[in-house]
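FORM 7B: Structural annotation worksheet

SECTION A. Query
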Amino acid sequence: MSLVTALLATVLLVLSPIEVALAQSRLDYPARAGAPGETLVINGALDTPLIAPLLEDFHHRNPDLALRYNNLTTLAIYRDFLDDDATPRPDVVLSSAMPWQYRLANDGHAQPLASEAARRWPAWARWRHELFAFTFEPVVIVYRRELAERFGAVTSHADLVDLLTGHRRALRGRVVTYDPATSGAGYTYAIEEARLSPRYWELVNALGGVDTVLAGTTRDMLEGLADGRYLIGYNLLGSYARDFVREHPELEIAVPDDYALVTQRLAFIPRDAPHPMAARRFLDYLLGEAGQRAISELTTLGAIHPALDGPGTANALRQRLGDALRPIRIGPGLLATLDRLKREALLTRWTREFQRGTIAADTRDETSP
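SECTION B. Predicted structure
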């Protein structure tokens, strides 16, 4: 065992489980010697390996600032923000939970950003000058290459319905998607697709017909695909899938070409941010060409900036898929996803259609020779 490994093991032994979790979910970048003691605190729902290259680039450009990044779940970010006793208070809040971010901004918790970068930001990617999308992440299909070899590639939702209904027995228990009842992302995608596609409920029925496994995270689905438990996964977050698929050549990723939901991570500066000037510098970086170029070149998150059109940008995806790309809109419609009665109605129908597919498949199995 190396000295470094031994020291790390000793540290983990003396820390409580909660302290270990905190140590693994926080990134700290000290200011250069002699700089003021101000620390920019960012709370984000973005895994540290994904955001680290971005933070490192910002810190390299702003060495006078100390920077702390806290990686939290989307629900923890929302709850902690509304808890007046939670410390330290964040200077910037980043989250992929678009409805919850919009609610906080709409309820008056965000301060405006009046910079040139904010004024030039595309209107579809912001709300007023308070809430800004800074990534462009399509929702994708991931499948094992052996599935394509047996049944053909899946490049659209129509292909997926045909696959599920035409090869039901071969796919039974080998398909995975989000559980909309327990996953915020899964529920958001479900409500958006129900609005978008007249065939959405046919797809839910077909998913039930193959006893689709319902998962809580994209990571769960990817790991199941890699180890062969599943042959195809539906509605995975593309930013996580791209990195994973690169390391697993047995997997293929497809952005559906009939329509593709695009989720975006939203950022805002709280009205009570302890360090508002530092927060504005960071948000200007996220929206500026330098930060967006770092997103497109150093991460899999997808850049929005209209001047960028290389791989990993919204412009590149639009050139390939055109109007098939459907970014989730930033606006009052997001609040509908948080309405209790609407949520119950959608989940009731989703469960009914899924179970109908399961029952119909069981009946066909019983009556088939």
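SECTION C. Observations
The chain is about 50% helix and 15% strand. The domain at 3-136+264-327 is CATH 3.40.190.10 (D-Maltodextrin-Binding Protein; domain 2).

SECTION D. Sign-off
Analyst initials: ____
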